[in-house]
Every structure is written in structure tokens, then in C-alpha cells.
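Board notes, transcribed. Complex of a protein with iron/sulfur cluster.
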Amino acid sequence: MAEVKKIKAAKKPKLADPKEASIDLTSQELIAHAQKLGVETIFDRAMNLKPCAIGIQGICCKNCAMGPCRLPLPKGGIEGEDTRKGMCGATPNTIAARNFVRMIAAGSAAHSDHGRGVAEVFLSAAKKETDAYKIKDVDKLLDIAPWLGVETTVEVDGEELDRDIDEIAVEVGENALKEWGKNEGELLYAKRAPAPLYAKWKKNGVIPRNIDREIVEIMHRTHIGVDQDYKNLIKQGTRAALCDGWGGSMLATDLQDVLFGTPYPLQSEANLGVMKEDHVNLIVHGHEPVLSEIIVAVAQSQEMIDYAKTKGAKGIQLSGICCTANELLQRHGIPTAGNFLQQELAIITGACDAMVVDIQCIMQNLANVAKCFHTKLITTHPLGKMEQENVIHIEFNEHYALEDAKRIVKMAIDNFENRKSEVMIPQHKTTQIAGFGVESIKYHLGGTFRGDYYTLNDNIINGRIRGLAGIVGCNNARSKHNDQHVTIAKELIKNDVLVLTTGCSAIACAEAGLMTPESAQVYAGQGLAEVCETVGIPPVLHLGSCVDNSRILLAATEVVKAGGLGDDISDLPAAGSAPEWMSEKAISIGHYFVTSGVYTVFDLPFPTSGAPVFHNYITKELEEIYGGMWAFASDPIEHAHKMIAHIDKKRKALGIDKARERVLMDFDDRRAL
Ligand code: SF4
Ligand code: MSK
């Protein structure tokens, strides 16, 4: 067995304490294993690379070559007038707001460009230019068509007839693509929001015109010497963020559902223990499911399984990391290997024969780690290449998707016999029930005869369910891996709050065992546990990937429609959270939640805290405009209780606060459920 190559370090770096770095046993074991092998991971880098205290507060401007202008907050805070300014005179509010809306632009661009890629493949499939993709969910196609201005029936001789599905699909694809660059009108999906919310957006002039335009306009406004009013800047940030949640992300989710199938609950497993030593391990990582959907079909084909056996493997174990994992999990039950901070660890098992990456959240250091093992690291997207020589680029093309996928799977199989280091797959994995969405919540909590959100609303009104929480977002190596996601989720369900989750947060909750119906009996409060037991759902519902946060917006809209809990999303006893956030996408998500009326809590530090006036504006004054606001907490229990306090405030405003005091389950109550 050949020696594992070690990465050279300039000076002796500090090493992370595995137990301090993650709450997850699998990760702790692999961090320690990496250190034993001398392979550096992000957990060690976090010990040696400190963040800039000024940049982290949003008050460093490098928008022109007279800077960077750094405006640190004076010790003890601002007393009297804030006289800080950059070379051009830009105030801390201008600088922080410019930086903040640029983060929104980047996040919205990432989600929306993902959506555009899906729309292009969708149109190609609708036009039958490729054999690899077909329309799978006709019902969903017919559901979304009217929102995109596509008729589903046609009048012939006074008779209303169903239109041809292929024709509808082509028009849906064409109209969807226009959302990125049309010359007039407004974002079509904005009308899917509750009417009072749409009216608020209209009144404040923030309904997006088209997706690309709002993002480009941020880059223009934040150039030196253009928009220097933080309120005007954040207004543009709102347009771009709404383009994400109610535009690019929602279109990505819908078109993926139509093309690959709308998710329904299914059982799978989570954590790196899903890898198998005697199988070829192929891991997909990133966000776009367009190629990985085909990889699933190819990896499960008898031809490839037989081929793997000729190489001495017992089969092929496909698993996923980050949101590509969530996409394949929710539609096919493909197990989840891990979330953002576990990507290097997957290779450190020594059993990853190939890792296939597409876009977003892919650490460049994967290439350095892969060099130490036999792992083939394959980039597949024209937008996401890596400079390191050991990285293979196989560019995905929807017209040759099947050939591309076969080449990739075969490469993984051929690499099985090249394993050169000790294999160390920690034996921890959990069961998860995933694949929830707007449609399945309707079915589960509404029942066959009453497939709607009334039952969910009834349970919120009677207090068995205290409220709803969305926990989303990333891991951040500056905080203990998975700790905040799991602590907050546990505290919320203990207090009868039903949790909806996506992204890396969902993976953290699955790894902690919160995604089985039985976990409700262990962790949930009495009311929520009763509901979970009766309808057979976990107390934490996995709603998919980061773009699937749009499912949370639409689920909230359905709750409003079902009645009894106010007229707008901001009336609901609901709150949002992204405790371990790190990406610009998280900022865009947070801002579209806030401006859709959701009280949204993030971890500190936050890139607005160095500009107190602007910070105050987004944490307090935005609530008067949209009903939602940004809020912050560093401690996870405080974080959860801020959300619960908001939920209780809304219950009181709705006049249903007394119901909770009366909730004492007896047999009749349970039967009524
Ligand atoms: Fe400094 Fe103004 Fe240039 Fe920013 S735009 S770097 S604040 S001079
Ligand atoms: S993958 S954006 S680390 S959630 Fe969607 Fe996870 Fe955050 Fe990436």
C-alpha cells in the first residue's frame, strides 16, 4: 500500500480540536484521522486564519482604487455624530449598504443562474432536442403554467379543450426564460404571494422587473459615486432578493419538479457512514441536479453494476454532499454523505473513488485533499473549474448527458482498484424521512379527503403546534459544525414549533436523528409530538435544497390561504433562521424572507453591525414596511427563544394565545386529530 502524500505547510500550523470543531461523531473521527495523516482541513485552517474585524462588520470599502477605505467603529461605540468617512466621503451606512446589497446580488445571481440553467435544459427537453430528459410531472406543469401566462386549455367551436402537453411545456420553458431578460412587465411569480404582500411590494416600488436587470443594477448603483442613500440601496437589494426567492429559486424548484418529479416523503440515510468500503463510492456535490439526475440512472444500471463487479467491487454506492445531495435525496432517496464542512472529510475516508462537482459551495482545497488520496475530482460545469492539475474537467452538455454520465461513472469504477491508503469510514449514520414539499404537507396534514392546509392551521390555532420555523443555510467553520442548527431545532420542537428546513441545515438535522417520526417522542413537546405521531411525520421536515426555500415561501402562502391565521405571511406565528450562515446566497435568502414578512434570525457577527444607523434600519424599520425584520443572536438557545417570542407575539395578535394554555391532550383530542 503506497504512502499518503502530505501537504507541505509553510510554518507549523495549529490543529483543531476535533471535539470543539464539530458535534458530529463522524466528523470528529475524520478530523482526527486527517490530522494523523497530515492532511489539512478547513477545521485546521480556521485555527490559523483569522477574519478581518473591520470587513466582518461591513465597513471596509474597496469599490475604487483610492481605497480600500476602512472605517472601524471607535472603541466604546459612537457618541454624538458619526464622522467616519471614506476618501470620497462615503459614510459607514453607504459602505455597509453597498457591501450588503452586493452580497444580495451575488447570492441572487447564484440561485437565479442555477434556475436559468434548469430552464434551458427544460426548454431543450420540451422541444425534444435531447433524449436524456422528459417531462415527468404533468400535473405540476399544469399547475405552474397559468402563473407563467400559459393557457392550459383552448376553445374550439365554443368547446373548451385541453391543450397539447408538449405545446404547453415549450411555452412554459420559453416564458420562464423570459423572466431573466424581458423588456417590460414585472416578475410573474410575484403574484403568487398573498395579495397584501404583493400590495406592499407594489406600494414600495420593489416588484422586480426582470431577474438579470435587478442584479446588474446593484453593480451599477454600488460603483463609486452612484447610489449614496442606504434606504435607496436596500430597496434595490430587496428587488434583487425577491428575484431570487420568488424568481430564480422558485423557477428552479418548479422546473426541476416538472422535469425530475415532485418529491414525496421517502426513507434514506445520512452521514459519511453511508459510504461502503467494498463498493465503488461515487459522490456528487454542489447544487444543480441536471447532470446528477442522469448519474443516478447510470449508476443504478445493471451494465454499470456488472462492470463494477469485474473490478472487484460489490456494487456502486452513490451519495451526495450539500444541495446536489438534497436534490437527489428528495427525488430518489440517494443517501446524504454530508454537508458543507464534511466535503473534505468524504475524501479523507480513503474510499471516495470519484467526487463529481458542479457549482457553488465547492471548496478549492478539495483538489489538494484529493491529491493525497486516489480520488478523481471531476468538475462538470463551464462556470466552475479549478486551477489544480489533478482536477479533471468533463463539461456537461444536456445533448450528451447520458454519454457524460457514463464516462464519469466508469471513471469512478476504474479507480476503485487504485485505492492507496487505509480506508476509514466511521460507522455512524442515521435514518431520515425526507422529500417534503408544499404538495406533500398538504397531503400529510390534510389527509386524503381534505387535502389542504386546514388541518395544519387547525393545529396551530388550537395550540398543539405553537408555530412554524424555517431553519436554513450553511455551515461556517467559525462556529462548531452543526451545533447551532441542531440546538436551535431541538429547542424549537421542544416548544411545539414545527420546523421546516433545507440546505446544510437539513443535513445537520438528519445527522442528529431529528428526521424520523419517532424522534418526535424523544425531542418534541407534547402537542407537536401528538401531531407527529398521529400523521406520521418527523418534527423537522426536510424541504430540499437551498433553491427549495421557495417551497417554504409557498407553504407559508398556503397556510395564509387556508385561513384563520391572518391575511399575510407577516401575520403568521412563524419565524426564520440561518444560524451557521456563511454564503452570499444566505444573505439573499435572509433578505427575501424578511421582505416577504418573516422575522429572520442570523448568527453574529453580521456585515452591517459596523454601521449602526443602517443596521438599525434593517433590524427595526423594515418591519414597518414589510412586516418582517432581521434579528441576531450568537447563542443558539437565545436564538431559538427570539423566534419563539416572535411566534407568541403573533399568536397574541391573532387572539389564539389562550388556546395554548388550554392544550391538554386527552383521548378525544387525539381522536379529533
Ligand atoms: Fe474609499 Fe469611496 Fe473608493 Fe470606497 S468608493 S474605496 S469609500 S474612496
Ligand atoms: S449548500 S449555500 S453551504 S446551505 Fe446549498 Fe449548504 Fe449554504 Fe451551500
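The first strand starts at residue 60 and ends at 61. The chain has three domains: 92-260, 272-418, 433-654.
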